[in-house]
Amino acid sequence: MLFEGGCQCGRTRYRARGPRDRASICYCRMCQKASGGPFMAFLRFPADQVEWLTAPSVFASSNRAERGFCAVCGTPLTYRHIGAPYISVTLHSLDDPTTVRPDMVFSPGAAPDWCFALADLPKQQMDFAADPDFRNYQRPATRER
After folding, report:
1. Which of 9, 71, 121, 143 is most solvent-facing, going by the fewest CB within 10 Å?
2. C-alpha distances in angstroms, 78 versus 124, 133, 137?
3. Greatest Cα-to-Cα distance within the chain, rounded to the nearest angstrom
4. Domain annotation covers residue 53
5. CATH number, domain with residue 8
6. What is the pLDDT of residue 130?
7. Which pLDDT tens digit goes with each residue over 3-12?
8. How far apart are CA 15 and CA 20, in angstroms?
């Protein structure tokens, strides 16, 4: 199976060929800081199965891990143990993230208490597409080749 994805602006794109490894959620504080959210979701592959059409910029977030991102729009794209044979792409940078469900959780003790009550919050749709003045500057999920 082929997995394709990239950043919001379309500058940084990748293709990953299956078989994939695990899909995970991580609540650790470093993932919280890197995403600006309570967790990050990842899909891991052997690094040699991931092809970059335009490589991401990389930030060493510690002496053990580095994170790839688009230098233009800031989209977080990868997590990798430095020198390891695997790389994890962010699950929702996939063109179709609905094809994957996480199968494990890292650092659940670091999750904010309210994360486990999200399903109980009031629901409201937020879709600007019907507004004739709305302009979406994000690139489409797939790019013309």
Report:
1. 121
2. 30, 34, 22
3. 49
4. yes
5. 2.170.150.70
6. 81
7. 999 999 999 9
8. 12
Please state whether 131 falls in left (phi above 0), alpha (psi between -120 and 50) or beta.
beta
pLDDT at residue 132 in the model? 86
Q: Residues of the chain with pLDDT > 90: what percent?
A: 83
Cα 20 to chain centroid distance, Å, stands at: 15
Secondary structure letter of residue 94 according to DSSP: B
Residue 139 lies in a domain: no
Look up residue 117 and give its two tokens: 């009550």
**Tokens 């996480």 belong to residue:** 102
Reading the block at residue 145, the tokens are: 């080749």
Q: How far is Cα 80 from Cα 10, in angstroms, rounded to an integer?
A: 22
Note whether residue 136 is domain-resident.
no
What is the total count of domains within the chain? Answer: 1
The residue type of 1 is: M
The single-letter code of the amino acid at 135 is R
Q: Does the pTM of the predicted model rise above 0.85?
A: yes
Nearest to 43 by CA among 84, 1, 85, 3: 3
- Beta bridge pairs of residue 59: 67
